[in-house]
Amino acid sequence: MKEGPDIARIGALIGDPARANILGALLSGKALTATELAAEAGVTGQTASSHLKKLMEGGLLLQAKQGRHRYFTLAGPEVGAVLEAVMGLAAHKGHLRTRTGPKDPAMRAARVCYDHLAGDMAVRIFDSLQSRDFLAITGTKGGFGLTDNGSRFVREIGIDLDALTAGRRPLCRVCLDWSERRNHLAGSLGAALLTHFIQKDWLRRDRNSRTVRISPKGQAEMNQLFPVD
After folding, report:
1. Cβ 196 vs Cβ 190: under 8 Å
2. Do residues 82 and 59 touch, judged by C-beta distance below 8 A?
3. Helix (H) or strand (E) holding 214
4. Tens-place pLDDT, residues 2-56
5. Euclidean distance between CA atoms 191 and 213, whole angstroms
6. What are phi and psi of 68, to 5 degrees?
7. CB neighbours of 63 closer than 8 A, spacing ≥ 6?
8. Burial of 4 (0-12, 13-18, 19+ CB in 10 A)
9. pTM for the full model?
């Protein structure tokens, strides 16, 4: 490809195993220190610093200083969406690492994808919204938007839709779920739903992973709000 976006550079940045582990750790949406990311990547602090510099130069990470520590985050939700999509492609093509430990089923059930919900529950939400015509394809690029009935539903469950639409971020985006290999909802609405569910104590985030635990009450409430055939 001689013209247009340089996807080779992004691919090279993501493709290094240590950098892939760093990026995967930051999919939790939490800011992590260089020391923490070195441990996630399984490399020395000096090697991690080199990787972090390359990721920042490539526009994939942001850095903030607080006291003696430097904290790193993904550069934005679009970076998280790309990572989740690449994970979905890798899973679909059979490029899977060995899964061990009891946390894996829980992560596949519900987890954080940067700032929105992913996993089986997230796919259920997307399928339910689409099947009830609350989501509709808009434009020629396959984008999604809320229908009038969808807007009414979102307001009824307690989401401030006016505040979301006033922002610059797209309201609805689709993100390919790596474990389910189907779409879940991202964008400002996806982020608002995750925050809303956590505030209602339907979901609780694990402190040291991307896993989200669904309370019994949350499971019942979400099954009722988002029925699927």
Report:
1. no
2. no
3. strand 212-214
4. 677 888 889 999 999 999 999 988 988 888 899 989 988 888 989 999 999 999 9
5. 17
6. -85, -5
7. 52, 56, 70, 71, 72
8. exposed
9. 0.72
